[in-house]
Amino acid sequence: MKGFKVAAGVGGIALVGLGLSMAIANPHSEDYEEFAVERITVYLKDNACKEFREEMGDFLSEHCPKIGKTLIDIGRPQLKDAIARRTERHNLIFFSIYETTVSLQTLAPTYEFKTVGVLQSFYLYQAQTIQNP
Phi and psi for 42 in degrees, rounded to 5? Predict the structure, then answer.
C-alpha cells in the first residue's frame, strides 16, 4: 500500500509538472503568425492556381503557377497583416487552437486553416478551400 501511495504521489507531481510546462510553453499569437505566413504561403502556391483553372483563359492558366507564386511572394507583408486580423485564438491554457480565414480577393475562394499550438510547436490539422458564391 505504501508503494502505491509513493507511485501516486510521484505520478501526481509529474502530471502537475507536465501541465505547468505545457501552460508555460503555450505559443503566443505572434509565433503563430510567423508559422502561418510560411505554411499558408506554401499552401497558396501549391493550390491557388488549381482553384482558378476553370475561370482563367488558356494564357493565364498556363502562366498562373509562375505569376501566382511571384504575386504571393510580393504579397507576404499583406498576407501577414491579413492573418493577424483574420485569426481567432482559443487559448485553452495548456494549448491553443488558431482558426484563420484568408480571402485573396472578392472573386477568389476563401481559405480556412485550423492549427493547434502546443509546447512551442504548431500543427496544422485542417486546410480547406471554400468557394465564394
Answer: -60, -45
For residue 12, tell me if it sits in a domain.
no
**Alpha-carbon span 59 to 72, nearest angstrom:** 19
33: Cβ contacts below 8 Å, ≥ 6 apart: 80, 83, 84, 87
pLDDT at site 27: 80
**Overall number of domains in the chain:** 1
Q: Structure pTM?
A: 0.71
Write the pLDDT tens digit of every residue in 62-114. 666 666 677 777 777 788 888 888 889 888 888 889 998 887 665 567 888 89
Give residue 99's pLDDT.
92
Task: Considering only CA atoms, give the Rg of the chain.
Answer: 21
Residue 9 lies in a domain: no
Which residue range forms the structural domain that includes residue 67? Answer: 26-130
Phi, psi of 116 (to 5 degrees): -110, 135
3-state secondary structure of 112: strand
Which residues on adjacent β-strands are paired with residue 114? 99, 126
Q: Do the domain assignments include residue 104?
A: yes
